[in-house]
Amino acid sequence: MTAQSKAETAIRVHRAGPLALLQDRGRFGVRHLGVTQGGPADLYSWAWANYLAGNPWGTASLEITFGGLQLIAERDLDIAIAGADLGATLDEQPVPLWQRVTWKEGQKLIFASPVSGLRAYLSVRGGFAAEPVMGSVACVSREQLGGFDGWGSKLAEGDRLAIHTPEGKTAEGMTEAPGHARKDFREAPVLELLPGAQIGEFTGRSLYDAFNTWWRVDDRADRMGVRLLGPKLQCRIGSLISEGINLGGVQVPADGQPIALLNDRQTIGGYPRLGALSPLSASRLAQCLPGQEVKFVARGSGQVLRDYRAFLELFRLRRS
Q1: By three-state DSSP, how is residue 210 classified?
Q2: Are 28 and 135 in contact (CB under 8 A)?
Q3: Where is 199: in which H helix or E strand?
Q4: In whole angstroms, what separates CA 100 from the centre of its chain?
Q5: pLDDT tens track of the chain, all 320 residues?
Q6: How many helices (H) and strands (E) are present in the chain, helices listed first?
Q7: What DSSP character marks residue 145?
Q8: Which helix or strand (DSSP H or E) is residue 302 part of?
Q9: b/e 9-28 (16+ beta carbons within 10 angstroms → b)
Q10: CA-CA distance, 188 to 172, in Å (whole number)?
Q11: Beta strands in the chain (DSSP E)
Q12: Where does the record place the Carboxyltransferase domain (predicted)?
């Protein structure tokens, strides 16, 4: 969205819910300053919501976790909701997911609670408007950066949200995601993991367990990372000099329980790592509810890169 785009208030927050954050593609080029990237925890669903709403890559959307959010439109809006099924309704009528719909002035949009998945993405044609901080509006509450006020604040009742005026009278492109693109978040996912530099330091038994165990998602999971519960993994390395941490990095602390790091992770860490989840697998893990099971499968960088480039080709290059 261009800096010259006009923005007008178009949505009022009737009830804020536990966690609804503004997220564009993320904040890059600042990790040497100790600032994390932010951005959508589920990049896949965020991209689809924007695409179906008729927005270019990188447009800011709302990431809604757990539900509990109630919004009222102050003018007619074209929207798309992708990701988790949080029981969304418009004036008590179910909202179709993974497709473009019209949200009429005065209608109340309610996100109830998870039916499947954890995070839903609400994209409005034109995109949500906010002042960028360090080149992004991505909201990272822990660092008090981004969001609608620039300070990483959560939404509050009575807030009024501005939308960029879209170009053209009607949105172009696909209005509904094909069936194969819609994820069933009730299924136990198999997550692609690229082996890392320290993987050879884990015992043979630990490596067997790492890739042959169905790990359970712990209650201790947020936008920083997801702790997984299962057999204790043992590493011959006692400690490491802290090094940079990438999205999806799977650390193994002293208790032997892996932690997969997500968008709001710290920028450096000193625990040995099994490797890193592919970007799309990190997105899939971000939709897992506590208690859900996941499994790792080792992958080489070649196939992972081909899959990721194909993903970007659909969303990024067709809407530059």
Answers
A1: helix
A2: yes
A3: none
A4: 20
A5: 444 568 999 999 999 999 999 999 999 999 999 999 999 999 999 999 999 999 999 999 999 999 999 999 999 999 999 999 999 999 999 999 999 999 999 999 999 999 999 999 999 999 999 999 999 999 999 999 999 999 999 899 999 999 999 876 666 778 999 999 999 999 999 999 999 989 999 999 999 999 999 999 999 999 999 999 999 999 999 778 999 999 999 999 999 999 999 999 999 999 999 999 999 999 999 999 999 999 999 999 999 999 999 999 988 754 44
A6: 4, 20
A7: B
A8: helix 301-312
A9: ebbbbeebbebbbbbbbbbe
A10: 35
A11: 7-15, 19-23, 61-65, 70-73, 77-85, 89-90, 93-94, 100-103, 108-110, 116-124, 160-164, 190-195, 215-221, 225-229, 243-244, 249-251, 259-261, 268-269, 273-277, 293-298
A12: 32-315
d(C-alpha 143, C-alpha 85), whole Å: 29
- Contact criterion met (CB below 8 Å) for 236 and 203: yes
- Residues 6 or more apart whose CB falls under 8 angstroms from that of 23 comprise 38, 39, 40, 46, 60, 61, 62, 63, 138, 139
Given the candidates 2.40.100.10, 1.10.10.60, 2.40.50.140, 1.20.120.1730, the CATH classification of the domain at 190-317 is 2.40.100.10
- Rounded Cα distance between 318 and 259, Å, is 35
CA distances from 40 to 134, 161, 201, 224, 255 (A): 17, 19, 33, 12, 29
| Cα–Cα distance list, 219 to 18, 23, 213, 267 (Å) | 16, 23, 19, 23
Largest separation between any pair of C-alpha atoms in the chain: 62
Count the neighbouring beta carbons within 10 Å of the beta carbon of residue 187. 10
CA distance 128 to 199: 42
What percent of the chain clears pLDDT 70, i.e. is strictly above it? 95
Which amino acid type is present at position 203? T
| DSSP-H helix ranges across 54-152 | none
